[in-house]
Write a structure and sequence with these properties.
Elements (H helix, E strand, L loop, with lengths): L4 H13 L5 H7 L3 E6 L2 E7 L13 H20 L4 E9 L8 E11 L3 E10 L5 E10 L6 H9 L5
Antiparallel strand pairs: 1-2, 2-4, 3-6, 4-5, 5-6
Helix pairs in contact: 1-2, 1-3
Length: 160
């Protein structure tokens, strides 16, 4: 029996936050708490540690980008059932967070074009909801288990 994609994406993020995986990702994701997980949606809380800060005590933008990428990938995984490769990824930074500051991350799948899927990731200051960063990501896959592709195949009378 195949795992539930929402549960699998949660396990992947949870394992990363406990240090299982690549060292850079493990340090960046350490302490991430999943608050709510639905198909194509993740809400997480995160406290910025001193391990991922810059010289001024701010959340390092590289560490922030890594976490945005991972949370976005997990939201897409919960939607499509598999990890895809990023083909377009951009982040707009509006503010920063300091060491020990809590932020909230919300990732939503907003587009599905068959083999490519889009997600938007918002990072907000937990105390007042101020937008810190906005990530937009498109991911592609050669895996034909995507919902839109399954739907097309089921409704098609054309042979493959």
């Amino acid at each position: 029996m195949e795992d539930n994609p929402v549960q699998s994406s949660n396990k992947w993020l949870d394992d990363l936050s406990k240090g299982l995986g690549h060292q850079l990702e493990a340090i960046t994701v350490e302490g991430l708490k999943i608050v709510k997980a639905l198909e194509g949606f993740l809400l997480c809380n995160f406290v910025v540690s001193n391990r991922i800060s810059d010289a001024d005590g701010n959340w390092h933008v590289g560490a922030m980008a890594t976490l945005i990428d991972d949370v976005g990938a997990a939201a897409i995984y919960s939607y499509g059932g598999h990890i895809k490769a990023s083909i377009d990824f951009n982040i707009s930074f509006f503010s920063t967070a300091k060491i020990q500051e809590e932020v909230e991350m919300e990732a939503k799948v907003v587009g599905d074009k068959g083999r490519i899927t889009s997600v938007i990731i918002e990072v907000r200051r937990k105390s007042n909801g101020e937008l810190i960063a906005l990530g937009k990501q498109w991911m592609a896959s050669h895996n034909n288990s995507n919902k839109a592709i399954r739907s097309i195949k089921c409704n098609s009378s054309r042979p493959e």
